[in-house]
Write a structure and sequence with these properties.
This protein has 2 helices and no strands. It is mainly α.
Length: about 60
């Protein structure tokens, strides 16, 4: 695994985390839900998306 692969993972995680957090936060503002339970789902999905992105580009 090269340093570029770790950068792809970090970029994929950061991008998906920010986008999903904004989407879920907007939905929670519309529904007036004040719980923070969505954070675990956003983190786990972001890790999976970043791993998929990194694995599909590994070694290129």
């Amino acid at each position: 695994m090269r340093l570029v692969d770790l950068g792809v993972f970090a970029f994929g995680f950061g991008t998906s985390f920010v986008v999903l957090t904004l989407i879920v936060r907007i939905i929670h503002l519309i529904t007036h839900d004040h719980t923070k339970t969505y954070l675990w789902g956003v983190v786990s999905f972001s890790l999976l998306a970043a791993a998929l992105l990194t694995y599909s580009n590994l070694g290129r």
